[in-house]
Design goal:
Structural class: mainly beta
Radius of gyration: 17 Å
Order of helices and strands: EEHEEE
Strand order of the largest sheet: 2-1-5
Shape: elongated
Oligomer: single chain
Number of strands: 5
Distance between the termini: 26 Å
Strand content: 35-45%
Amino acid sequence: MAQQFNPQNINAQNIKKRTSVLVFLKGSTAPLVLYVENPQELYAELNQVMKSTAAVLIEKETTGPLKKVCFVSNQIAAIAMQEEQYV
């Protein structure tokens, strides 16, 4: 039987999943990738803010590479949730 390629001897038990919230801003080519404790809650909050016509300043502290981020709600073009695997 053929053996699968596993360059770093990564055991399937060591693979974890995390979910991030992607915020696509108008005029930006790459999204902001936000890692937070409760991504579903942040997604719902940003979804509500997008429905409002008033511009609101949004400031969040995150657990990923971006430690603190700030943007204006009327500059949000889209939001998404992304699930990724890591070791």
